[in-house]
């Protein structure tokens, strides 16, 4: 049989491109990116599930990952690169103006789906936008600002001037790095394709627990076309153990003899890109010896230890004990008891891990997606046996992180391949590989008892939780330590005892995910509060307000708090609460009378969250300088994974210095150029790096004023490379010429900030965090009592930010956090081997999001920069419990296991009906 | 790897009849997700350029839908009200992007128990047309789908068309899909119904449930029970009908078997109720 070959010529953005020599069944996405060099089209799943690769084929949106090259021949292909015909298109300008791009990885797909819509509709309404864009997933934004942008695309662009000096903090500034995200020039991990780079692919365990033996690798390499090398654990020159918390480092970069979870890498295949990309590695010589696997943490204590030094598979126990909780509970007028079970939750960023590594002299350069460049450098250097200064990490844009890109993934693997082959090496995880091998949110199995006195004042709480930390430690210790500190919620709970254990199993490694266990604990505490409030005869919001922490109150760890905003957040919900309850009651009366199955419910929940590491140092250092040419340079090492630190840190530094934001040039992050700003986690960048930026800006200002002999009230101006100082004595130039300082600047400053905390003693007493942020959210929803389905219609979110640095970015965090909280509550459950893709693992789509109203509260923190507190993780904590509380309000159903999938909700409704 | 995209059916059938297995490619929305690699492997026969294979035409008394018709083309086509159900299903297939690529024939050949197109096509008494060099045969859709991911398609055959008989072009139809999220979702359960009424009674009823058995099923006992029933009594008959026991659902990550039975029953009762209310509203 002979099948005809094609002579393909593609028409891409109006230009003819030869695609000769390529397989006609090659995915169009691969052709556009690899062959045409058009990396604006992103790949998130290779399965049509995420829509990131959306392009137009004769004007209609399709997934380029599902489109055979052969079917694209002869048709007009339009990619995101075609949009900026004349500067930014109106759509792109609207995305930038509205803050519709956070990490930016889904932005090209969103833009292309929107382009098809606006080509046929001048003024689409929200429903039309949601429908048209519904095939593209976003994990950052919660979709609201994307819909805003598309609806507003036709508005005439107004070029508002940037904020004046001293007015940057609080300004609704579009993100400073937004242009590259909307015009698709931003380079993500998979977009960097160095000339002559080799491809790296991993061989991974198909079993949760298995011994393995590698066969005749040399023979396999010799007979497999394109393969240059196979690398295994014994090829690693350094210590084959990594971990984000050095005393707990236990994870091999490549497994040695035993694989402890499904998806663990055991070997690397390095080869020429074209041959290796297509190769089926099923004949790779490895023999597996599957062994019994511990998949239920309840069975772990009696099972053989995964790690010899951790008998009973107990990694760590965290505890906080303030007084005799049992005694307080025994004497309480009302007590409530309950349990909650949560699932593994996948971060599901749209960008699977990817990056490239090469040698520059004897320095190994790694460019990949990350949240923690300095930790990547130190971890990779140790594994590869290099001094830290011989590894340079220059992060590419992270297409979402949410905690999982704190741990190294492919950095040591591509580093090893580059060291051993001497050639640039790149690696791009498949969606399956990303989901199998990277960290997850810890599943929790928790119990608690809470008591109150006759007036409804909390008198005691006992909490106990087991958290499945999977095969390796990762951030398990952090979860075990954070949960007991936070499990009370932002309330005065009286005598308190909380314990959390991290337990090893052969499940996926559980690590950091937005909230470090606090969202799980809040699910239990906040749902129990609703029951307790009812027993006390109190309105659920009033019960929370009555018990909310106030200024000067002591926490269960004995810390005295200042700048406590939870009361203000709950007060801000009051009018909305009253309105929603009345509406729900009226709707439910009507539904009962009509015999229809829909019931409305309203729920509320709070959060608090300590910003920064728990009782451990986590300094950030910011450098800012003026070059002899008068360029103002900010070395900004806080990795922006979409949350906005590039913008926020600059706004803070600008006001501390007294020059406008648009005078700044940003450098970094780059471990060779930027001082360490720590990791982007624990909601710490605005607070910790922000304080460093404020201090550095202030120090630079002081030095300028000193040189000008001016007082603190003087104003600065920088134009055409000339620095002017003006005060009551007139205006004068500050000379910038002359010898540079040791940092290479005419004038510069560098300042470090480390939050003042203290260690926790054996009862968890101490000052774990210098700053807490607070919030409360109210969910309104409809439950279909015949089907168990839930539609969240509105969430009103009040968050205390201390000081709002940038309201647009803050709203973006709230909307995105709510989307993840809604997923946690209603649909997300990672099951190894079953949900390793984005069609079996569900995250919210455009159509699942409620209308969101953000209320930004400012109760200044005494140590935050300009009073600011962190926000990134707080925002998802209250969402899930508020939803469960609203389901119970609507139907009586008590949900003790999330996700509340329809079958679980229906079963709970029936159980409530029987009771 | 070899690839062909012929324009004539004859040529395609010749390629398909060769000694080596040939993968038939249409929209690609099931073949590509099944591989992690940048291209498909093996010999691939792309049927999307075959003349007439993407057309919707009347063929004598029957309606003939080319197997390579894309979901979005079906939605855009001017079809009688009996097709409202299959159009509603088309709008629920994956996403707009998937509907612009995926084909009806591909959906049937992939034979997923949760294939969105199957329940509404069952209510249209759909037949599939299978062509090979040996000739053309027609099979009822229910006979074509032999199990989860299994069909009666022979290795030398191509599914060329879905044929809807004239008798099934009457009445009104609807479709409902239940999933754990709004878009881009695989069904927990789905239901389709086509009802024809005359003089206040049901004269034709076709009911089908998907994702609750290895292959979507018609509910023939309940259909029979509905014939001749006055519209005012339909609700009662539907309530009395034992829908759940006609199904053989499984427990999986999306839902339990028991839930699927209950949800499918509830969905179908509502769907029929909605259809009749709409019918009455039109008549009024």
Descriptive notes:
The complex is a heterodimer of chains A (915) and B (284). Chain A is α+β, with helices and mostly antiparallel strands and 915 residues long. In chain A, 28% of the residues lie in helices and 23% in strands. Chain A is built from 22 helices and 33 strands. In chain A, the strands form eight sheets. Chain A has a seven-stranded mixed sheet with strand order 8-10-6-18-15-16-17, sandwiched between helices. In chain A, a hairpin with a 4-residue loop joins strand 31 and strand 32. The model of chain A is unreliable at 1-6 (pLDDT under 50). Chain B has a five-stranded antiparallel sheet. Chain B has a four-stranded antiparallel sheet with strand order 11-12-13-14. In chain B, strands 1-3-2 form a three-stranded parallel sheet, covered by helices on one side. In chain B, helix 9 runs antiparallel to helix 10. Chain B is globular, with a radius of gyration of 19 Å. The mean pLDDT of chain B is 96. Classes of the chains: A alpha+beta (915), B alpha+beta (284).
What is this structure's SSE topology?
The complex is a heterodimer of chains A (915) and B (284).
Chain A lengths: L8 E4 L2 E4 L9 H8 L18 E4 L2 E4 L5 H4 L3 E3 L11 H9 L8 H12 L7 H8 L10 H8 L26 H5 L15 E7 L5 E5 L2 H7 L3 E6 L25 E2 L5 E8 H6 L7 E5 L23 E8 L3 H6 L3 E8 L3 E2 L7 E7 L2 E6 L4 H12 L6 E3 L17 H11 L3 E4 L2 H7 L2 E2 L2 E9 L5 E13 L5 H11 L8 E10 L13 H18 L4 H8 L18 H29 L3 E13 L9 E7 L5 E4 L9 H13 L6 E4 L17 H24 L6 E5 L2 E6 L2 E4 L13 E7 L18 E13 L4 E12 L6 H20 L24 E7 L21 H13 L10 H13 L1
Parallel strand pairs in A: 1-5, 6-18, 16-17, 21-22, 25-26, 32-33
Antiparallel strand pairs in A: 1-2, 3-4, 3-5, 6-10, 7-9, 7-11, 8-10, 12-22, 13-20, 14-19, 15-16, 15-18, 20-21, 23-31, 24-25, 24-30, 27-28, 28-29, 31-32
Helix pairs in contact in A: 3-6, 4-5, 11-12, 15-21, 18-19, 20-21
Chain B lengths: L1 E3 L4 H8 L5 E4 L17 E4 L9 E4 L2 E5 L4 H6 L7 H7 L5 H4 L4 H7 L7 H6 L3 E6 L2 E6 H4 E3 L2 E2 L6 E7 L7 E7 L10 E10 L2 E10 L6 E2 L1 H7 L7 H7 L16 H27 L1
Parallel strand pairs in B: 1-3, 2-3
Antiparallel strand pairs in B: 4-5, 5-10, 6-7, 6-10, 8-9, 11-12, 12-13, 13-14
Helix pairs in contact in B: 9-10
